[in-house]
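Hi R.,

Here's the chain you asked about this morning:
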Amino acid sequence: MNTILENRTWRYATKRFDRTKKISEEEMELLLEATRLSASSYGLQPYHIFIITDTEIREQLKPVSWGQSQVTDASHLIVFAHQTDFGGELVDDFIKNTAETRNIPNENLKGYSDFAKSKLVDLPQQTKEEWTAKQVYLALGNLMQAAAELKIDTCPMEGFEAEAYDTILGLNGKNLTTSVVVPIGYRSTDDATQHLPKVRKSKEELFTYI
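And here is the predicted structure, written out as tokens:
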């Protein structure tokens, strides 16, 4: 089997992590860089990522994560938070970064800047937040697949109280709110879930060629 498929078959939503096993600093840097390189709409990356190793904070987060042990047992806890609102500054910051990275004048990017702003800035606030939340999942997918390549386990979680996370992590008033949580580390040998066959729709049910 191709390693691409092998790694995706090996991966599962880990229910029990081995608390004694920690991800190396080198591999964490690889995971974070893979996540940083994720695609996003217009390239804007309207989110922030928190890497939580502090045991006390994780103990505070566990009760507001429906008591799920992954939050405290995994090597690291990754929290994705998306922006709740934005204006033209979101595009301006990207244009400035692009000009500096590619060593081109800002004015050369005015057309792209104007186009992006025309599509985004005047959207209703709720629509903006829905859009920024969607961008998080592109980065989440990259993190999970990079982890699978390194044989590092993940468990994407939406089962938590976002408002409580925002309070514990000090996000209130920072134009950020928690989107999704990902404990990462190494599966426990006691996690029976790892031995279950992967359940997905059949090719015939899922794909349509036109």
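One quick note: The radius of gyration is 19 Å.

Cheers,
M.
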